[in-house]
Amino acid sequence: MPPSPETETFGFLVTDVARLMRQEFDRHIGEAGLGLTPGEARTLSYAARAGTVRQSALAERMGVEAMTLSGYLDRLEARGLVHRTVDPADRRAKLVHLTEAAREVLARIREIGPRARMHVEAAMTPAEWETLQTLLKRARKALCEGREDNRKSSAA
């Protein structure tokens, strides 16, 4: 029998917390009556964070397949929450833009975040919560910088 993996390591812990937070967020989105799937709500949130963005870059940032994102965008576009245009720098690529109608929906989505993480925050002091967020941001930055260093060394 092979040894079982250590499940209390950084990677396992971050993955478990992210999975559980996503499930909690998805549950709250479903209960909010927005008429959006959790994937569509995440798409709007990521698009708002990115600003005008290529569809392929948005899929990569979200960690979803291009076809999955395309389905989300089709439905969001049908509701008038996003529109897509041809990227003038590359006519094969599409740019995703939020519409004015998306702002109200995004405001409601932003209200859900605090409710979804309520139990996590309640388990910590405000100082611990701030420290956790600071450390996670530092870890994210280091991982992004590591990816960039790998790209540069691969291109050389």
How does this structure look, described?
It is a single chain. By secondary structure, the protein is mainly alpha-helical. It has 2 domains: 17-122, Orthogonal Bundle (Arc Repressor Mutant, subunit A), CATH 1.10.10; 124-156. Helices cover 69% and strands 11% of the residues. It contains 7 helices and 3 strands, in the order ααβααββααα. Strands 1-3-2 form a 3-stranded antiparallel β-sheet. α2 (38-50) packs across α5 (100-116). The model has no long low-confidence stretch (mean pLDDT 92).
Explain the layout of strands and helices.
Blueprint: H1 10-31, H2 38-50, E1 53-54, H3 55-62, H4 66-78, E2 82-87, E3 90-98, H5 100-116, H6 118-122, H7 126-155
Antiparallel strand pairs: 1-3, 2-3
Helix pairs in contact: 1-5, 2-4, 2-5, 3-4
Oligomeric state: single chain
Biggest sheet, spatial arrangement of strands? 1-3-2
Helix content: 55-70%
The number of helical segments is 7
Give the CA-CA distance, first to last residue.
43 Å
Mind telling me the C-alpha Rg?
Answer: 18 Å
Which consecutive residue ranges, at least 5 long each, have pLDDT under 50?
A: none
Averaged pLDDT, please? 92
Assigned CATH architecture of the largest domain: Orthogonal Bundle
Total beta-strand segments: 3
Q: Give the amount of beta strand, in percent.
A: 5-15%
Q: How is the biggest beta sheet arranged?
A: 3 strands, antiparallel
- Apparent shape: globular
CATH superfamily of the largest domain: Winged helix-like DNA-binding domain superfamily/Winged helix DNA-binding domain
Q: Classify the fold: give the CATH topology of the largest domain.
A: Arc Repressor Mutant, subunit A
